[in-house]
Specification:
Elements lengths: L4 E3 L9 E4 L7 E5 L5 E4 L7 E5 L2 E5 L5 E5 L1 H6 L5 E3 L5 E3 H12 L23
Length: 128
């Protein structure tokens, strides 16, 4: 079974985040996440599938290796959002990941950024 460790050198609720190793073949690892928490992915994710299932973020690395971050959508929309720390040391805020997934799924229907209309005229429907 894959061990999830609490780590104190990354930000998160109560002073620490969590470090998650790559699940073993055939293993599904489920982890509840919180707003402001950092989830350190201790491996190079490489190719795989990323999807939202309900309120969870599901990362499928193939060979039955699945990481399910429970309540990710709510934690990503919170202030501060949950953050993924990638193996190369880069940080990916959850809200940015949600926007990227929405744009990839349906660019025409992607939600505008908060405040996108500030200082600009709001679009209106013009009758023909």
């Amino acid at each position: 079974m894959t061990a999830i460790e609490r780590v104190d050198d990354v930000p998160g609720p109560q002073g620490g985040g969590v470090a998650v190793p790559l699940p073993a073949p055939g293993e599904v690892v489920s982890l509840p996440v919180l707003p402001g928490q950092t989830v350190r992915l201790g491996f190079d994710a490489g190719p795989g599938e990323v999807m939202i299932f309900g309120d969870d973020l599901v990362l499928d690395f193939g060979a039955g290796r699945v990481l399910r971050l429970e309540d990710f959508v709510d934690a990503a929309r919170a202030a501060p959002p949950v953050v993924l720390e990638l193996a190369d040391g880069r940080f990916l805020p959850g809200d940015a990941l949600l926007r990227a997934l929405a744009e990839a799924a349906s660019p025409a229907w992607a939600a505008p950024e908060p405040g996108a209309f500030l200082g600009a005229e709001r679009p209106t429907l013009q009758p023909s």
